[in-house]
Amino acid sequence: MNAEVRSIRTAAESALVEAFAAVGPSLPGGADVTERRAAALREIAERGLPTRRVEDWKYFDLRALMRDARPLAAPIGDAEIEAARALLPLAGVDAARIVFVNGQFCAALSDIDPLPEGVSATWLADALGDDGAALFDRGEAPAGNAAVALNAAFVADGIVLGIAAGVAVARPIHVANVQTGAAHAAFGRVAVTAGEGASVTIVESHVGSPEGHQTNTHVSVTLADRADVSLVKLQDEGLGTLHLATLTATLGAGAKLSSLALSAGSAAARQQVYLAFRGDRSTAEIRGAGFAGARRLLDTTLVVEHDALGCASREHFKTALDGEARSVFQGKIVVKPGAQKTDGKMMAQALLLSEGAEADAKPELEIFADDVVCGHGATVGALDDELLFYLKSRGIPQKEAEALMVQAFVGEVIETAEDEALRDALTARSTAWLKARD
Predict the structure, then answer these.
(1) pLDDT tens digits, one per residue of 292-313
(2) Boundaries of each SUF system FeS cluster assembly SufBD core domain copy (predicted)?
(3) Exposure pattern of 71-95 as b/e (b: 16+ CB <10 Å)?
(4) How many CA atoms lie within 13 A of 183 on its CB side?
């Protein structure tokens, strides 16, 4: 006799199923979208949240980290808007601003009038009509990804941006996400399509109060031939927050993608990036920097798929860890058959500022073509004692000397931001973290 083995649902998994049953019928979208949502929720209900037994989640045990599911955020009112106003980041950056408070569009804090001709902005609820199911495509993300499935099941608000062919958008477009009020779950989605020869800078920020929210965002970017898109992200949410973020990107021929992310908040944050070269001679530069103390966890999971001729990719991630913090880097470059002349390089570096800090790195290459130049590397180390002694011998106090060295370490990544105001803002946030160290 064969016994059927069934896993017992956790409190979080049961709460997610119950929440979808309650709110699913009221979420925006036509019949196709509703079915996509239901299918995504079934993935979670049948498989459960991923554990460390799932290879992609080996270092980020979502089932253990998400012991309960926060209730969906309530409709925002004046109190939430005013609280969010005080938290809005990057005030010194000259940009068109689209603000979501607790996952809901907030017109009172947004400033979208500066959007130039050739740039269209459609709210997700409006885009999810009878023909909106395509917005729920996984892009380059693998099937069964829990973060993507949860976002598809519950997302109710977001923005769809279209940049017409040949349009060069001079000012950045800032999509700001603010969490405030009682602990809740919030879901967001940003879809960007850049037409042939178009160029734009998209800034994404996440800040919030310390109540212990759960946030889940999915940003999808499609670059037509010769499009040029720059992405800058600041993740600075409250230190009780669980942050799940997905970036999917598809590049056409001759396209250029630049991405820079700084993580300085949340209790546990996972940034997963799935990028694919579908057109010849395109380039991508994916960079990230992170700061973590106490028992915080930062996870970067990255898959870059080369499936075209003569493409180049560069991935560089740096983290500074204090206390009992932990960083994870899982990076993979895949070169498909026929993707000759590929040039791919990947590097992950971690700086341990305490004996209790830990860094895990798992770089991989999968190469199925024979005319390529690919490489990867990973380093983990402490501050240079000789250099630290030199700085102290010049009268610089210990803490200040350490801060200078850490700033130089992560500055190599932050300095790649082309916009001066953005670069200064990211540098200021890293300086504030260093000053706050015990």
Answers:
(1) 999 999 999 999 999 999 999 9
(2) 179-409
(3) ebbeebeeebbebbeebbbbeebeb
(4) 13
The pTM of the full predicted model, rounded to 2 decimals, is: 0.95
- Work out whether strand 104-105 and strand 96-101 pair parallel, antiparallel, or are unpaired: antiparallel
Backbone angles phi, psi at 329, to 5 degrees: -130, 115
pLDDT digits 0-9 by tens, 131-177: 678 888 878 888 889 999 999 999 999 999 999 999 999 999 999 99
Whole-angstrom distance, CA of residue 278 vs CA of residue 274: 13
Range of weakest confidence among 72-76, 127-131, 413-417? 127-131
Three-class SS string for the chain?
A: CCCCCCCCCCHHHHHHHHHHHHHHHHCCCCHHHHHHHHHHHHHHHHHCCCCCCCHHHCCCCHHHHCCCCCCECCCCCHHHHHHHHHHCCCCCCCCEEEEEECCEECHHHCECCCCCCCEEEEEHHHHCCCCHHHHHCCCCCCCCCHHHHHHHHHCCCEEEEEECCCCECCCCEEEEEEECCCCCEEEEEEEEEECCCCEEEEEEEEEECCCCCEEEEEEEEEECCCCEEEEEEEEECCCCCEEEEEEEEEECCCCEEEEEEEECCCCEEEEEEEEEECCCCCEEEEEEEEEECCCCEEEEEEEEEECCCCCEEEEEEEEEECCCCEEEEEEEEEECCCCCCCEEEEEEEEEECCCCCEEEEEEEEEECCCCCEEEEEEEEECCCHHHHHHHHHCCCCHHHHHHHHHHHHHHHHHCCCCCHHHHHHHHHHHHHHHHCCC
Backbone angles phi, psi at 347, to 5 degrees: -145, 135
State residue 130's pLDDT score.
Answer: 60
Asked if the model's pLDDT at residue 284 lies above 90, the reply is yes
Work out the average pLDDT over 81-104. 94
CB 94 within 8 A of CB 116: no
Q: Which residues contact 87 (CB under 8 A, 6 or more apart)?
A: 178, 180, 207, 208, 209
